[in-house]
């Protein structure tokens, strides 16, 4: 009998603790944003897509051999891919990300925070990334990388990069 009471008490305390932690987290954490994310994905097939919902916007374009994806969450993501490339752009919380890939490139651009801009123009095979924090301008091209503000850029093809 005492064993059943012990199990019941343990379960009751466990449920109460879980509810208490859940309530504390709900009170302490800020509410989630009501912004609507948008996504534009273009699979191989020579297509283009655009979307705009409130402050979230995106566009993507790809030729018959490539794929592109642009996403915006209160920001703008623009991706273009050609000649066997795959491009990704994420514009978050006021950021603008532009990713252009060609000739087998795999560029990614991520901009998060007000006034941030990440631009990645990959030409040639290989992966590359440009990430911009709030207020930063990060640019990566086949000719080099420039980091102005908090961010990072790097190319595995050209071995060029920067840290801001």
- Helix fraction, binned, reads 10-25%
Give the biggest sheet.
Answer: 7 strands, mixed
Number of strands: 14
The number of distinct helices, counting runs of at least 4 residues, comes to 1
C-alpha Rg (nearest Å): 22 Å
Order of helices and strands: HEEEEEEEEEEEEEE
The average pLDDT score comes to: 82
Shape: flat
Portion of residues in beta strands equals over 45%
What structural category arises from helix and sheet content?
Answer: alpha/beta
The residue ranges in which pLDDT falls below 50 over 5 or more consecutive positions are: 1-33
Q: In what order do the strands lie side by side in the largest sheet? A: 1-4-6-8-10-13-14
Query: What is the CA–CA distance across the termini?
Result: 66 Å
Summarize the structure.
The protein has one helix spanning 2-28; strands spanning 38-42, 47-53, 56-62, 67-73, 76-81, 86-92, 96-102, 105-112, 117-123, 126-132, 137-141, 144-148, 151-155, 161-163.
Question: Overview of this structure, please?
Answer:
This protein is α/β, with parallel strands linked by helices and 164 residues long. Helices cover 16% and strands 52% of the residues. The protein is flat, with a radius of gyration of 22 Å.
